[in-house]
Automatic annotation (TrEMBL):
The modification 2,3-didehydroalanine (Ser) is found at residue 142. This is Histidine ammonia-lyase. The lineage of its organism: Bacteria, Bacillati, Bacillota, Bacilli, Bacillales. One of its GO terms (molecular function) is histidine ammonia-lyase activity. It comes from the Bacteria. It comes from Neobacillus massiliamazoniensis. It is found in: Cytoplasm. CDD domains: PAL-HAL (cd00332). Belongs to the PAL/histidase family. GO terms for cellular component: cytoplasm. It catalyses: L-histidine = trans-urocanate + NH4(+).
């Protein structure tokens, strides 16, 4: 059971929740803070004070005073009018993460929402009632208004959900689970939608997949080194310590460990003096990707525990301050950084694939074909990798450098962080397929060299890969192989494979 406090949620806990069906509950202390904040909102309404989003309209309508008797209508109209997202829905695990992250932010006690609403959010998480949330339509300030409005629709019984493998109206799922929808009170609609949880949830799922992919990429690269009789000297510890980047040092150490007892690697001068950069510079390039991922992890774990709505309530309601914590710029930058880092992981992988199949660059059968000429072998797989790498380059254009004014120029600078996170996720999916292609080619190459000569650790990974994709002994529909290898990489429990490899 994960206890939410609004302060301490980690990416590891998110992984447990999203991929291992862990349940969640709110801490009692946090709920007490939520209740105090709620009491402050109720005093503001009863006293008729002018406070943005509580007794006024929104955005450019912030100067329009709303009478007390229309407070509920104000919140309902807000959710309905702002639920105008378009496009394909977010993946279910992203939408589930969004619900959890919104609840965690509200538990900080700065938002003036009733504990009941947070309890409903956590009920959705624990019962796997997942809002259907369109991906497109957020500017990333004032937070993720359109996506989070679709989340809020579910709470009031007007949205759609994924439930038990089906898409249905939220009320139907609620009836099956015995749940009643919520009637939103003062500020609650605004508190639910004014935040960065769409971009952050997409970023969390993307990061978790990217982290696993980065680990797998080193195993795949190690197998490629064996397939090409790569020079192991380039991974010597002193070389990387001399540069000084810890992630580079760590990457080189893992490659050395994976290949420690290989009979397929060579020493410098044995076959050649130096390898091409795509082999020799694996620690430098992959290490730099790890640097970027470390940055992304830090920013995500801050944002996962951040108060990102507006206004925020302090000192038991004595201070209600309109600010801009909903602005997604920190996550926008992080997502753009992740896009570039993962795209480069694909870039160097595709170059290694080229070295595996190009007869001008190795002594293996051309294109790893079982009958060169009659059968094309892996020739067009490299085309696919090249196409995906090129597509990544267009997706890697930074979304965060763009902005467009909205709400009659009241909201005149926005982050585009949600676009950045969505593009990062697509790059990760593309990169997994690029690495799947390298894996297929590397497995074929080591077979020509002699599987019995492989390092014990890479051999175990090779055996896992052969569960997904059989040996290429004749041409076949390789699209299926790429998809199977990519799916295998996605669902593989990296902790288990690494534990196996260390034995």
């Amino acid at each position: 059971m994960i206890i939410l406090t609004g302060e301490s949620l980690t990416l590891k806990q998110m992984n447990d929740l999203l991929f291992h069906n862990q349940k969640v509950k709110a801490s009692e202390k946090s709920m007490e803070a939520v209740q105090k904040s709620r009491e402050a909102v109720e005093r503001i309404v009863s006293e008729g004070k002018v406070v943005y989003g509580i007794t006024t309209g929104f955005g450019k309508f912030s100067d329009v005073l709303i009478p007390k008797e229309h407070v509920q209508d104000l919140q309902l109209n807000l959710i309905r009018s702002h639920a105008c997202g378009v496009g394909e829905p977010f993946p279910e695990n992203v939408a589930k993460a969004m619900v959890l992250l919104r609840a965690n932010a509200l538990l900080k006690g700065f938002s003036g929402i009733r504990p009941l609403v947070i309890e409903k959010l956590l009920e959705l998480v624990n019962r796997d009632i997942i809002p259907v949330i369109p991906q497109q339509g957020s500017l990333g300030a004032s937070g993720d208004l359109a996506p989070l409005s679709h989340l809020a629709l579910v709470l009031i019984g007007e949205g759609e959900v994924f439930y038990k493998g089906q898409k249905m109206d939220s009320l139907e799922a609620f009836q099956q689970e015995g749940i009643l929808p919520v009637i939103l009170e003062a500020k609650e609609g605004l508190a639910l939608i004014n935040g960065t949880q769409a971009m952050t949830a997409m970023g969390v799922v993307g990061y978790l997949e990217a982290e696993q992919l980065a680990q797998e990429s080193e195993l795949i690269a190690s197998m490629t080194i064996e397939g090409l009789n790569g020079i192991i000297d380039a991974f010597a510890e002193e070389v990387h310590v001399a540069r000084g980047y810890q992630q580079q040092v760590d990457t080189a150490a893992r490659i050395r460990r994976y290949l420690s007892d290989s009979l397929l690697t060579t020493q410098q001068g044995e076959l050649r003096v130096q390898d091409a950069y795509s082999l020799r510079c694996i620690p430098q390039v992959h290490g730099a990707t790890w640097q970027a991922l470390d940055y992304v992890k830090e920013k995500l774990e801050i944002e996962m525990n951040a108060a990102t709505d507006n206004p925020l309530i302090f000192e038991d309601g004595e201070k209600v301050i309109s600010g801009g914590n909903f602005h997604g710029q920190p996550i926008a930058f992080a997502m753009d950084f992740m896009k570039i880092a993962v795209a480069e992981m694909a870039n160097i992988s595709e170059r290694r694939t080229e070295r595996l199949i190009n007869p001008q660059l190795n002594d293996l059968p051309p294109f790893l074909s079982p009958e060169p000429g009659l059968q094309s072998g892996a020739m067009i797989m490299q085309y696919v990798a090249a196409a995906l790498v090129s597509e990544n380059k267009t997706l890697a254009h930074p979304a965060s450098v763009d902005s467009i004014p909205s709400s009659a120029n009241q909201e005149d600078h926005v982050s585009m962080g949600t676009i950045a996170s969505r593009h990062a996720y697509q790059i990760i999916q593309n990169t997994r397929k690029v690495l799947a292609i390298e894996l297929i080619c590397a497995m074929q190459a080591v077979e020509y060299r002699g599987v019995e000569k492989m390092a014990s650790q890479t051999k175990k990974f090779y055996e896992k890969g052969r569960e997904w994709v059989p040996t290429i002994n004749k041409d076949r529909i390789f699209s299926k192989d790429i998809e199977k290898a990519a799916e295998g990489l996605k669902v593989m429990e990296m902790s288990q494979i690494l534990q196996t490899l260390s034995m």
